[in-house]
Amino acid sequence: MTVLFICRGNLCRSPMAMALFNHLACHRGLPNVSASSAGYYDWSLFPREAHPFARRAVEALCGTDLLAEHRAVLWTDDAVSSSDLVVVAEQWMRDDFPAGKTLTMRQLAGRDGDVEDPYGGDYDAFVACAREILQLIESGWPLLIGSKNL
């Protein structure tokens, strides 16, 4: 099972979701389950690594900096087609991806709305966002590992 997390720039929410998901899959002994991440927009004029606060937030939740090597990428048709599930941070993004395999992060927990972008916020905003994403991933775990259909 492969999951592709997508946010606006692949600097904050989607890298955090990818890292948290892969951390949980590893600790739950699921070697055939993995996640990647991508951005909806190409922000090539800006830094391409994960936001420093995103790195610290994931480290606070997982005990290690899982985003140290992360470099932002733009989503591609190949990345979408090779993924079993696409999970987007904001509702408006769903329209650009296959309906039968795309959810929002909040839909993982049966909720509506967007996961707010912490970009521009302080460290506490990133920690709150990472905690929300972790809770959504845990709530939607059966969908994310393919044991439950959309």
Explain the overall architecture.
This protein has one domain (2-144): Rossmann fold (3-Layer(aba) Sandwich). The protein is 35% helix and 13% strand. It contains 5 helices and 4 strands. Helix 1 links the parallel strand 1 (2-7) and strand 2 (34-39). Helix 1 packs parallel to helix 2 (52-62), helix 1 crosses helix 4 and helix 2 (52-62) crosses helix 4.
List the helices and strands and how they pair.
Elements lengths: L1 E6 L5 H15 L6 E6 L12 H11 L14 H5 L3 E4 L13 E3 L18 H17 L1 H4 L6
Parallel strand pairs: 1-2, 1-3, 3-4
Helix pairs in contact: 1-2, 1-4, 2-4
Please describe the structure with a list of short key phrases separated by commas or semicolons.
Rossmann fold, 4-stranded parallel beta sheet, 4 strands, alpha/beta, 35% helix, 150 residues
Mean pLDDT: 94
Residues in helix, %: 25-40%
**Span from first to last CA?**
14 Å
Shape: globular
Instruction: Give the H and E element order.
Output: EHEHHEEHH
Number of domains: 1
Overall CATH class? Alpha Beta
In brief, what are we looking at here?
With 150 residues, this protein is of the alpha/beta class.
